[in-house]
Amino acid sequence: MCLAVPARIVEKEGDRAVADAMGNRWNIRITLTPEIEVGDVVLVHAGYAIAKVDEEEARRTWELFEEIAQFEEKRIAAEQADKEE
Amino acid sequence: MLERVEQAKQTIQQACTRMDRPIQIMEVCGTHTVAIFRHGIRSLLPPQIKLLSGPGCPVCVTDQGYIDIVLELAGRDDVILATYGDMMRVPGRAGTLERLHKPEIKVVLSTDDALALAQKHPDKTVVFAAVGFETTTPASAVAVADAASSNLHNFCILSGHKLVVPAMQALLGAKNDKIDAFMCPGHVSVILGSDAYKPVAERFHKPCVVAGFEAVQIMEGIAAICKQMAEGRGEVESVYGAAVTPQGNRTAQAIIDNMFEPYDGPWRGLGFIPGGSLRLRPRYQRFDALHRFGISEIPAEELGGCQCGRVLCGLIDPPQCPLFARKCTPDSPIGPCMVSTEGACSAWYKYGKH
Amino acid sequence: MDENKTIMLAHGGGGRLMADLISRTIVPKCGGRSVQLTDAATIDVPAGKLCFTTDSFVVKPLFFNGGDIGKLSVCGTVNDLAVSGAQPLALSLSLILEEGFEIAQLEKILENIGQTASRANVRIVTGDTKVVEKGFADGLFINTAGIGARITGAVPGFERITEGDAILINGTLGDHGMTIMSQREGLKFESPLKSDCACLHELTSRLYNALGNAVKFMRDPTRGGVAAVLNEIAVAAGVGIEIDEPALPMDKTVQAAADMLGFDLLNIANEGKVVAIVAPDAAARAIELWRSHPLGRRAAVIGRVLKGSDHPLVELVTKIGGRRIVQMPYGRELPRIC
Fold first, then answer.
1. Which pLDDT score, from 0 to 100, does residue B351 have?
2. Mutation for testing the B interface, residue in C320, C326, C328, C332 having most B CBs under 10 Å
3. How far is the C-alpha of C215 from the C-alpha of C238, rounded, in Å?
């Protein structure tokens, strides 16, 4: 009944944040998850973070997380390549 | 991943050999229904296992009386109607929001967008069609709280919010012996916590397993249910530990509780479910569209010939409804289960029989 | 209002303003002397068969990452010719402008039209301009029609599709549609997504030239996406179609955006993709030919044609080996939260 996708918090101010899902960035509310910090992965539903994702568990049981990890690695590698240039 | 699927299939197979009868598992969640079709899960299960598509989509169970009020409000010149995209094709007696062709009907992605509309158009009242289960309700509650604290007077909601656990209890309480187990909604459980199903599991001794939405996660959920059944257990279990805790999201629960109160409201096809609907508490009634527009209550209505109620309850499959694929198709839906892209009938029509 | 800054009704009125707009703005940007100002263009055509097509373009927003309505209007018609086995020769260009539209924007769009056409080696030879009152068009609508010369040996047709044929695509699904969504009012999100909008005639002619009649059919999966095209093919050819989910080329970022809005990428529009159906023994060579071109780097065999049927179905074999039907899309995707 409810679509929710994992995304990583990349900015946070008050109860608003920017969440990154594989390079797409959404302005979301974190009113329901006040404990989250930049760097955390949250589940986003209808513009709200509804939970902090347990990444260790997610990596074991959630196929998408392998893809997120690979995506991150690529992005970091690309950033480093940019810096070296 | 394929290894895990294989392992789940084996668990299911072994459990089936230990059970002497076919079993029926209801997936309570409409997103599960769609995922089950999208991943072709049914084609991987032994014939003893039947998946029933339950009352899991908030659009499916939104009574037509509610939709008629939405259409009426959307037709007013002083109203901007904000809605999630899901509601656009739900037919009331006067058609659908999509067919009203009004630019003042706005599809929003979040309640924040609806609030922004109210700020941008102070000369109009923004009515937000607030539908959804526990996953979606907190966003409506936050929006009302924001409107209250920022004195945004031209914003209100029409609450069609509903609660999942009372519906599960009503289904079993109706002595519906067709349901052997529940696959519980992953994202509702994020808010509620898996402990919320304990009363159901304990009272009716049926397995209640919370699962995620990836193909593997669904297969593992079905495997966990089969294992419980083969061992004669009926317990709450979660295979979605990455996002679901036993207690759920306490902050979100408190926000819902502060803003809304349960009442016996109409569910399409299911009649009145005790404590199954949510309305704004009296102290927030100035943000209630019913109060603001002088509507006494949401009338309950039935659709002639439509068998959605029985489809939802797992009593019949969609093709057994006389309207299915004849009068009622995704292009001109009659019942709620055909309206929602994840409704049992629509998914069945689109993605095939099994 | 300054007649040099925005479109006025008089720009479509047949008088001085219109003549100036055409001769000073439209013609120079759209290829200069190739545009003929007579009532009809006269062009030399090679012997053989001609292909003729038309398409109208309405898109919101007019400018998007990876293109604009102008580029789209050239590529769209070039691609319709290209998949039909034609070498594009000439285009017409009709503009329907809304009163008040900024001329600077029009110039940008026209520039892109000129550049895209010249890169595709197709001339714009004739055109038309109309202006409608404010509120009666969404800035700018474009219609292009095109003619092309059928490549010798290219004989695409539904009737030639048979059991066992391979189904190919030249790259990732849904890039255009998701890019448009990401920039559309009300849905906007920040994203590196880029439309795949491109002219595909080099890809198609490679296949038709090298493989001849082993190419059974091609179509560009625009609105309705790959799901719509495959369903059209199944019905028109009276065959079943089976595609493999793991083989479908998907961009992770596009996929994540689709997941967020609740869309199935099979239903989402592309503007630089072509679906080809080729004889099974030609598939490997076709993929090789495509992958050596920048627009075909992620080309893949995505499925196969099954035997004829009175109830032609498109089926998908999922990642975990399940099967499901791929239905014709409804026609308008709405973002969902449920």
1. 62
2. C320
3. 18
**The architecture CATH gives domain C9-150:** 2-Layer Sandwich (3.30)
Domain C158-325 bears CATH identifier 3.40.1400.10: no
The continuous run of DSSP H or E covering C29 comes out as helix C27-29
Q: A29 and B249: CB-CB below 8 Å?
A: no
Considering CB atoms only, which of A1, A18, A21 is closest to C256?
Answer: A21
Amino acid at residue number B91: P
Q: What is the dihedral of CA C7, C13, C16, C20, to 10 degrees?
A: 50
Q: Number of folded domains in chain B? A: 1
Residues of A with Cβ-Cβ distance to B239 under 8 angstroms: 61
Structural domains present in chain A: 5-84 (2.30.30.140)
> How many Cβ contacts (< 8 angstroms) between chains B and C?
87
Choice among B13-27, B140-154, C92-106, C274-288 with the minimum mean pLDDT:
B13-27
Q: Where are the domains of chain C?
A: 9-150, 158-325
What's the DSSP call for residue B324?
B
Kindly report, residue by residue over C293-338, the tens digit of the pLDDT: 999 999 999 999 999 887 789 999 999 999 988 988 888 888 888 7
The label of the residue with tokens 């001109």 reads B332
Nearest-angstrom CA–CA distance, C143 and C134: 19
Q: Contact at 8 Å (CB) between C184 and C61?
A: yes
Place of tokens 């049914």: B42
pLDDT range class, residue B1, cuts 50, 70, 90: confident
Instruction: Verify whether the Cβ–Cβ distance B350 to C327 is below 8 Å.
Output: yes
Give dist(CA C226, CA C265) in Å, integer: 8
Q: What percent of chain C has pLDDT over 90?
A: 81
SS (H, E, C) B252-320: HHHHHHHHEEEEEEEECCCEEEEEEEEEECHHHHHHEHHHHCCCCCCCCCCCCCCCHHHHHCCCCCHHH
Determine which of B96-105, B131-140, B225-234 has the lowest per-residue pLDDT on average: B96-105
ipTM tops 0.85: yes
What single DSSP character describes residue C274? -
Residue of C nearest to B40 (CA): C322
Q: What is the 3-state secondary structure (H, E, C) of C153-195?
A: CCCCCHHHCCCCCEEEECCCCCHHHHHHHHCCCCCCCECCCCC
